[in-house]
């Protein structure tokens, strides 16, 4: 018997996931999905605030339509599906940001960018996640390196899983 941990389990033990699931059930969501748990973890990390707009995300509305998980650095560019590359935002902000970095999305509005920068620095404790959120320049070379690194990781884990399945 073996376990394959999905990104939702990143940095969260089985005990912690069980606790999160119970908390979500107490909020009225009886069968929380992995996506629900991820939304709740991001909501906690961000102290109930949409990272891009600064608007409050009411806990009682969290599992209703209107709130999305966004890839900070677009998944189509980086293939990075880690917890560190995700934030909880309003669906409207997610649509407006599209396939851009936060800086490409709001960097032209100096006041908005400064407010965002302050929000990130005061809310997000994970330094590497802060770096992704505040990244101003994302060169073609960096984009290519991200893809290559993540493709290599995917090839490696696929080989490991293949061998585990073959042995079992």
Offer a few descriptive terms:
8 helices; 54% helix; mainly alpha; 168 residues; disordered N terminus; flat
Task: Provide a descriptive summary of the structure in words.
The protein has 168 residues and is mainly alpha-helical. It has eight helices and two strands, in the order H-H-E-H-E-H-H-H-H-H. The chain has helices spanning 14-26, 34-45, 75-78, 91-97, 102-106, 110-123, 127-133, 140-167, and strands at residues 67-71, 86-90. A two-stranded antiparallel sheet has the order 1-2. The longest helix is centred in the C-terminal third of the chain and has 28 residues, at 140-167.
Strand content: 5-15%
Number of separate strands = 2
- The share of residues in helices is 40-55%
In which order are the strands of the major sheet placed? Answer: 1-2
Distance between the first and last residues' Cα: 8 Å
Order of helices and strands: HHEHEHHHHH
Largest sheet: 2 strands, antiparallel
Number of helices in the DSSP assignment: 8
- The low-confidence runs, each spanning 5 or more residues with pLDDT under 50, are 1-9
Mean of pLDDT: 87
Radius of gyration: 17 Å
Oligomer: single chain
Shape: flat
Which structural category do the helix and sheet elements fall into?
mainly alpha
